[in-house]
């Protein structure tokens, strides 16, 4: 009988295998910290740290399983993430009673967009939401006949669908890059590197802010963000991206510098933009779905900005297909 | 007229687990706060606000699987027993305890609920009596106090459901997925006096409502006809 686990491991490209190993190592460290820190400093409440790490295990297990299972499963996983994110957004956002069918129409973009992604319909996917949904929604809302609060409602739906569906669809779209164009780590390696860089940026900005934070950067939007956290996280993430981009992606030298400089900025922008939305809606977290983290939107806020940036820089500076 | 059997079908457990639970997850993603306050045994009374049929869906799916067989929502006989198919569905699959809203003097409309409590069931009541506007509480009817008086050993657990009225408001046919939040309060006990009991139940429900997440969507909805 063939050695199934061995074959599975052998099928994973080297850099991806090492990357996954490193992530497991960091998770193990986090888990150990959840056990050791309470022994060193018994006074503080460490339950939130343990919850956060435990949730990370679940999230990473899901993503890794989908990455290894292939394009279809990763597309399905991100369709689910989009659904949960959009449901959080539409539940919190001000929508009018007349807009109930528009709410359904907004959900309908999820199967449509992810079917386009699954079938590699890149050209249609690009315009499906930013052109067609954006013009169809105001028309359908006009048909509903309620003009009070009309413009604000149009903006609510268009922004919600762009942020929760359109930007995330880019992630599984990367899986359609032909293996010859991603010779180092395969298309799964492209996705892995995007998620790694985005989450590393989140964590590093947070850690730098905790360690060195003095000067607030946007106090009216996100009171805990500091210049020190932003700049420290930006520099460290840029270094990681610059070092690892040639390992995981076929991006050229210009693209490598641009990606290193811009990806951490995009992550910060996504985070701050979602903070502004949450502040306007009067909530701290978008739901309580992920223990220790908050809602799905809280977790993927940076990714909504980094995913399109990463995709388009990669397409322009490294891929013949897109 | 002999009232039809309200003995739940053997399929009810499967229906609740395989149909209602996934539907509740998809359409409400219900977040339950203080789930541990829900009763594990009967007799007990759960008193919730009522804006939508989704309230029943949520209340049937937040209990532990081992308890769910005992959970019996009280539902309007004039509506749910109005035609044979709906009646079979409501009685045998959902497992309602019917209550008549058209009272003739001398009728004991609470008899089915009393029987359920006497059997040791967990009876779910909607003291508003009917579905009101989304996330607003109407006046409470005192039937719940009469049940509590008849079963003083049964705790009365106030539950506030937020968001169900947006998933499927009264009059709407198509449900839309929206996150709901379920807040379970501390159990109340029969105090010996109906008016005081109803006041404490009302206060408990309003306190739970105040703890629920903020509702910015209301600003867009105010002024519209419900």
Quick structural gist:
The complex is a heterodimer of chains A (322) and B (226). Chain A is mostly helical and 322 residues long. Helix content of chain A is 76%, strand content 0%.
CATH topology of chain B: Glycerol-3-phosphate (1)-acyltransferase
| Helix content, binned percent of chain B | 25-40%
Biggest interface goes to:
A-B, 30 and 22 residues
Low-pLDDT sequence parts of chain A:
none
Q: In CATH's first tier, which class of chain B applies?
A: Alpha Beta
Structural class of chain A, by secondary structure, is mainly alpha
First and last CA, distance of chain B: 36 Å
Question: What number of structural domains do the residues of chain A give?
Answer: 1
Query: Radius of gyration of chain B in whole Å, from Cα?
Result: 17 Å
Taking the sheet with the most strands of chain B, its summary is:
7 strands, mixed
Considering the protein shown, what is the CATH homologous superfamily of chain B? Glycerol-3-phosphate (1)-acyltransferase
Helix content of chain A: over 70%
Q: Nearest-angstrom radius of gyration of chain A?
A: 20 Å
- By oligomeric state, this entry counts as heterodimer
In DSSP terms (H or I, runs of 4 or more residues), the helix count of chain A works out at 12
Listing every helix as H and every strand as E from the N terminus to the C terminus, the arrangement of chain B reads HEEHEHHEHEHEHEHH
Strand content of chain A: under 5%
Overall strand count of chain B: 7
Main features:
heterodimer, A: 322 residues, mainly alpha, 76% helix, B: 226 residues, alpha/beta, Glycerol-3-phosphate (1)-acyltransferase, 7-stranded mixed β-sheet, 9 helices, globular
Q: Could you explain the architecture of this structure?
A:
The complex is a heterodimer of chains A (322) and B (226). Chain A has one domain. In chain A, 76% of the residues lie in helices and 0% in strands. Chain A has twelve helices and no strands. With 226 residues, chain B is α/β, with parallel strands linked by helices. Chain B has one domain: Glycerol-3-phosphate (1)-acyltransferase (3-Layer(aba) Sandwich). Chain B is built from nine helices and seven strands; from the N terminus they run αββαβααβαβαβαβαα. In chain B, α1 crosses α2 and α6 crosses α8. Chain B is globular and about 40 Å long. At the A-B interface, α4 and α5 of A face α9 of B.
């Amino acid at each position: 009988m063939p050695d199934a686990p061995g074959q599975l491991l052998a099928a994973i490209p080297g850099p991806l295998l090492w990357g996954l190993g490193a992530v497991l190592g960091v998770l193990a460290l986090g888990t150990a910290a959840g056990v050791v820190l309470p022994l060193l400093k018994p006074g503080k409440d460490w339950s939130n740290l343990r919850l956060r790490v435990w949730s990370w295990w679940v999230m990473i297990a899901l993503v890794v399983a989908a990455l290894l299972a292939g394009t279809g499963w990763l597309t399905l996983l991100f369709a689910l993430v989009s659904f949960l994110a959009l449901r959080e957004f539409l539940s919190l956002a001000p929508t009018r009673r007349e807009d109930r069918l528009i709410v359904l129409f907004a959900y309908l973009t999820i199967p449509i967009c992810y079917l386009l992604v699954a079938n590699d319909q890149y050209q249609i996917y690009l315009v499906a939401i930013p052109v067609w949904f954006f013009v169809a929604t105001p028309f359908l809302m006009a048909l509903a006949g309620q003009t009070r609060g009309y413009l604000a409602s149009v903006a609510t739906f268009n922004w919600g669908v762009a942020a929760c569906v359109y930007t995330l669809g880019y992630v599984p779209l990367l899986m359609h890059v032909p293996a010859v164009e991603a010779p180092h780590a395969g298309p799964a390696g492209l996705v892995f590197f995007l998620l790694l860089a985005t989450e590393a940026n989140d964590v590093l900005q947070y850690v730098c802010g905790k360690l060195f934070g003095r000067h607030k950067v946007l106090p009216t939007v996100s009171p805990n963000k500091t210049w020190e956290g932003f700049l420290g996280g930006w520099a460290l993430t840029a270094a990681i991206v610059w070092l690892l981009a040639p390992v995981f992606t076929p991006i050229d030298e210009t693209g490598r510098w641009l990606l290193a400089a811009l990806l951490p900025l995009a992550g910060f922008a996504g985070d701050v933009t979602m903070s502004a939305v949450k502040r306007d809606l009067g909530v701290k977290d978008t739901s309580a779905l992920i223990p220790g983290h908050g809602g799905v939107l809280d977790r993927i806020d940076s990714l909504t900005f980094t995913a399109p940036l990463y995709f388009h820089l990669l397409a322009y500076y490294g891929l013949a297909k897109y | 007229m002999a009232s039809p059997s309200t003995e739940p079908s053997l399929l009810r457990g499967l229906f609740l687990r395989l149909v209602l639970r996934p539907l509740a997850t998809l359409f409400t993603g219900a977040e339950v706060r203080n789930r541990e306050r829900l009763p594990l045994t009967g007799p007990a009374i759960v008193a919730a606000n009522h804006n939508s049929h989704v309230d029943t869906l949520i209340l049937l799916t937040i209990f532990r699987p081992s308890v769910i067989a005992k959970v019996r929502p009280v539902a309007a006989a004039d509506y749910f027993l109005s035609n044979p198919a709906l009646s079979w569905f409501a009685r045998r699959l959902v497992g309602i305890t019917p209550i008549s809203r058209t009272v003739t003097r001398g009728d004991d409309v609470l008899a089915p609920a009393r029987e359920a409590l006497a059997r040791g069931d967990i009876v779910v009541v909607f003291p508003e009596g009917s579905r009101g506007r989304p996330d607003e509480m109407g006046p409470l009817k005192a039937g719940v106090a009469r049940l509590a008086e008849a079963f003083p050993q049964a705790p009365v657990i106030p539950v506030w459901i937020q968001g169900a009225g947006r998933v499927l408001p009264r009059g709407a046919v198509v449900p839309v997925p929206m996150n709901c939040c379920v807040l379970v309060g501390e159990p109340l006990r029969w105090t010996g006096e109906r008016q005081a009991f109803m006041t404490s139940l009302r206060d408990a429900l309003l306190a739970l409502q105040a703890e629920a997440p903020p509702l910015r969507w209301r600003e867009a909805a105010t002024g519209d006809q419900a």
